[in-house]
Design goal:
Layout lengths: L10 E4 L1 H9 L3 H11 L4 E5 H18 L8 H7 L1 H4 L4 H11 L3 E3 L3 H14 L3 H13 L3 E3 L12 E3 L7
Parallel strand pairs: 1-2, 1-4, 2-3, 4-5
Helix pairs in contact: 1-2, 1-3, 3-6, 7-8
Length: 167
């Protein structure tokens, strides 16, 4: 199901890739979805671990875009040259805009951290994806905006993904 098919009033958990696609300009559908959240047409929800992932990934994108480093091994190159990290700021500004988009940001509790392990065991998910499921369960959310295929195999979950991503 695509992002445009989400009904008004739906509570939707938002994965990092939706924000990344919006901020990097590779999906109008993601931008339109986030505008609907900002207008309170959709109840957009995420968690602090998602914001940390967005922050990290946007930092990498900005470093490459500003030609401070070249792929591969962006992280290692930045670690060896911390002065280049000091030249980055857009990643931080953009990530801080998420709360202004009408997105509710929930913390991660220790109980969610513990619960996430059961999702890794059951579905073979990576850590951040399993924490997303634990967060969704904690908040009683059944709809997810994401472009990660791993979520499609999880029963009882409505996954909405962008169909216009141009990388």
């Amino acid at each position: 199901m695509n992002l445009d098919s989400i009904k008004t009033g739906t509570k939707v958990f938002i994965d990092a890739n939706i924000f990344i696609y919006h901020f990097t300009g590779v999906s109008n559908e993601c931008s339109n979805f986030l505008t609907r959240c900002e207008q309170s047409d959709i109840n957009g929800i995420t968690s602090i671990n998602v914001l940390l992932e967005v922050l990290h990934r946007l930092m990498m994108v900005e470093a490459v875009r500003k030609k401070l480093v070249e792929p591969p091994n962006i992280i290692n190159k930045l670690k060896k040259h911390p002065e280049k990290i000091k030249e980055l700021n857009e990643y931080n500004i953009n990530t801080q805009k998420i709360k202004d988009m009408g997105i509710t940001v929930y913390p991660i509790s220790y109980e969610m951290f513990i619960k996430s392990y059961s999702f890794r065991l059951k579905y073979g998910l990576m850590v951040n994806d399993s924490v997303i499921l634990a967060s969704m369960q904690e908040q009683g959310i059944k709809s997810l905006a994401s472009n990660d295929e791993e979520f499609f195999k999880i029963g009882g979950l409505s996954v909405f993904n962008p169909e216009d991503v141009v990388l």
